[in-house]
Design goal:
The protein is an alpha+beta fold. The protein is globular, with a radius of gyration of 21 Å.
Length: about 475
């Protein structure tokens, strides 16, 4: 057996995979999120460890006894600040935190290597401007920082006692020479840091330590190796078999991601696309990110008193129609690709007395799809060639939403076995490869396709007209998004 653990934003997920690559068990544990001020988003690192233990405990104990290695994945960009005793100095600042807009602009202007070596625009969601914010606004805490870890790597520390990370997750800090796959000292220096503040870097399939005795006993496992793993998007791509040139993935989780794998480093920062290392050696990827995707459906449930996301989507399918008059801008946490605007806000436009829950639900599903298409266009502008897109994440379970997305993206969507397990599945695959080896084609083949949703011309025509209105609405309101 091989265990994959994903430190997500809303929950920790655990997956057990057998030697043949079949998922045999899954479990999860919820995580709280704190938003103490506008634009802020934080979690306590101790909560990740508590939820990890709960998720692992939810797996079949007999299967746990047979685990041979553990792989990790996790939400990217989170700034986990540790003192010399390796204790957290403050709550971790998460990927969807937008407080560091000024710091991001200052770093971008100060150090051109963020684009030349880091390959990306400096955005508030990334780790580097978060540290610069702490340096400016919490200098007493910054002075005590001995190590900076990403969320999954804090869990690794609790599991193994080792300070280590992988290439794909670390590329999202903006402190790496991404093409060279190493820390870049000028970028660290721009934030008042050195390589000594960083964990060691490893490829995703490399071992980074051994499970501590107390953890092994609590989990009912031997002291097995823990491999480097990957950031959630790279690990999700590994789980879906997105490892070769032009392979594409759409992830519908809390955030929305379109991920395209490549065999060489490409960077297109003008489009606000992200250029990172993949979780496998000698591979990179381009990625578009919208900060609120399936979480928009959760918001709509809360706003309308609808019991669940499934019920909300069913209302849209039953009571609404494609391209109804209502329009939704899905920027509940600001936006990255292509707008790079942490102040962008959610907007529900075009309501009247006849607007029903179903029509609101329809507008939300369409708005997320339009936001994903904006990001996809930014990737296509870099010259990539994408024929079809695999889909993972909780939102991938809705065929109706898939119909909307396929029409807006104008590409077939391929739904794969085990898609809902996402990054945890990829983490388990990386752990499996670390012990069994073999070829990448065998170890990371795409899971069986269980459904393909083709775009239909009538849907494309209806939604293209609605997307034009969506774009005009953002452009008309962008001056009103001030963060006040």
């Amino acid at each position: 057996m091989f265990l994959g653990i994903d430190i997500g934003t809303s929950s920790v997920k655990a997956v057990l995979m057998d030697e043949a690559g079949r998922v045999v068990d899954t479990a999860s544990a919820d995580l709280p999120i704190s938003r103490p001020k506008p634009l802020w988003s934080e979690q306590k690192p101790a909560d990740w460890w508590t939820a990890t233990n709960m998720a692992v405990a939810g797996l079949n104990v007999n299967h746990r006894h047979a685990v041979k290695a553990v792989g990790l994945s996790g939400q990217m960009h989170g700034a986990t600040l540790l003192d010399k005793a390796l204790n957290p100095l403050r709550p971790a600042i998460l990927w969807n935190d937008g407080r560091s807009l000024e710091e991001a602009s200052a770093l971008q202007e100060k150090e051109p290597d963020f684009v030349e070596k880091g390959g990306n625009l400096v955005m508030p969601g990334f780790t580097a401007p978060k540290l610069e914010w702490v340096r400016r606004h919490e200098p007493e805490i910054f002075a005590k920082v001995a190590k900076v870890l990403l969320p999954k790597d804090y869990v690794r520390l609790r599991m193994t006692g080792e300070l280590a990370s992988d290439m794909s997750d670390s590329a999202g800090t903006l402190w790496m020479d991404v093409a060279g796959r190493k820390w870049h000292e000028p970028l660290l220096d721009a934030c008042g840091l050195t390589v000594d503040h960083m964990p060691s870097l490893h490829e995703g399939v490399e071992e980074t330590g051994i499970l501590r005795q107390e953890a092994a006993e609590a989990w009912g496992m031997d002291r097995v190796p823990v491999v480097a793993g990957g950031g959630d998007n790279a690990a999700g791509a590994v789980g879906a078999g997105i490892v070769d040139e032009g392979d594409a993935l759409l992830s519908l989780g809390t955030s929305g991601v379109i991920f395209v794998a490549g065999s060489e480093f490409r960077s297109n920062p003008d489009s606000a696309a992200h250029a990172f290392c993949h979780a496998l050696p000698g591979r990179w990827h381009l990625m578009s990110v919208m900060l609120s995707a399936a979480s928009c459906v959760d918001w709509a449930c809360q706003a309308t008193g609808t019991p669940s996301a499934e019920d909300m989507i069913n209302l849209a399918e039953r009571d609404a129609s494609l391209a109804c008059k209502e329009v939704f801008l899905p920027y509940l946490s600001g936006e990255r690709t292509p707008h790079n605007n942490p102040y962008a806000s959610g907007v529900l436009f075009g309501l009247d007395h006849d607007s029903s829950k179903g029509q609101i639900a329809q507008a939300v599903l369409e708005g997320v799809a339009f936001g994903m298409a904006d990001g996809f266009d930014a990737l296509l502008d870099s010259g990539i060639d994408v024929h079809s897109i695999s889909v993972i994440g909780g939102g991938s379970q809705s065929a109706y939403w898939g119909r909307i997305l396929a029409a807006v993206l104008e590409r077939p969507l391929v739904y794969r076995d085990g898609a809902a397990t996402g990054p945890a599945l990829g983490a388990a695959r990386l752990a499996r490869y670390s012990q069994l080896k073999g070829t990448y084609d065998e170890a990371f083949a795409a899971p069986r396709a269980i459904n393909v949703i083709e775009p239909h011309d009538p849907d494309i025509d209806r939604l293209q007209e609605k997307r034009v209105k969506f774009t005009r609405l953002y452009q008309a309101l962008v001056g009103e998004f001030t963060g006040d």
